[in-house]
Structure formats: C-alpha cells, structure tokens
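Today's session is about reading a structure prediction critically. Students often jump straight to the picture, but the first step is always the sequence itself: look for stretches that repeat, for charged clusters, for runs of hydrophobic residues. Only then move on to the predicted structure, which in these notes is written as discrete structure tokens rather than atom positions. Here is the chain we will use throughout the hour.
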Amino acid sequence: MNDHPAPAAPRQRLVTWDDPGGGAHARRTVSGLDLLRGIVAGSVPPPPVARLIGMDFAAVEHGSVTLRLAPGEHLYNPMGVVHGGMIATLLDSAMGCAVHSTLPAGRGYTTLEIKVNYLRAVTEASGELVAIGRTVHAGRRTGVAEAVLKDARGRTCATASTTCLIFDLDGPETSA
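Below is the predicted structure for this chain, in token form.
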C-alpha cells in the first residue's frame, strides 16, 4: 500500500540573467564600491546568482552591504524549509561584497572560508530576509567580514563570518 499522496503538478521558475562577461571591464576599471553602487542603481547588471535565487542589493556603503531575499518554496530542502546552502549563499554574498566595497579598481576577492551559525528555520512565512555584511578587516591579501540574517519580524535567523583572499584581477589567481 502506498501511503504517499499523489504528487502535485510541477511548478516552474524561469530565470533570466545578463552576460556575466559584460561587467568584466567595469570590474577592472572602477572601485568595488562604485561597481556595487552601479548594481544598486541598475546601471550594472547584478551577478547571475542574484537572479537565480532572487537576491536583491538593497544598500551599499564602504565596508557594508545589505541584501534582500524573499524566501520561496523553490529554495526548500526535503524538510520543507529554506536550504542551508541558500542561506549560506546569501550571507557569503553579503560578506564578500562588503569586502569588495573596500577594494580599489583592479582588485578582486574570493572566499577562503565561511562559517555559518543557523539559529532558526526559514520558510516563506518568515517574510523578506535581510542580510547585512560588514567588513572587519581589509588588508592587502586578506579580508575578514561578518554578517547577520534577519527575517521580516527582525529575528536573527543566522550569523556568519568569512575570510576572503584579495588579489589583483590580472594576477595569477584569475588565470587558471
């Protein structure tokens, strides 16, 4: 006997994005802060991952980036809550972009490590999520940042910290 209900009709989500190579010139010729401000203003397309998961850039300042995401069932894991990897992606993006906002033209970053503390389950009922990433340190070779994720009621859902590698965009790290 099958105790499982009949599956519901499949849902769809159409994702479109801009050519990620289109911002390559801007990444090399403007500061990280100006590039991120261009994304907020709409003059620079957001990265494809932002469109994929539904993340929006809400605010950008030197050393601080605020991202928003409306959680939906398309982000759920088998337990019926937003997958921890999606939360980690949102927090990683906020922290990495916070470090990026401190960099001059021609410098880039990548995540070396990330630590996430999940404090409460997130579902559609959580309402809009807000991730605020803040730079703790931005040196010549490494950056350190932290972030907090809050739901629509202001409750902390997760916290995170990261270390980023900082490098020249035309350096050996980008010519794999």
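Discussion point for the tutorial: The longest strand covers residues 156-168.
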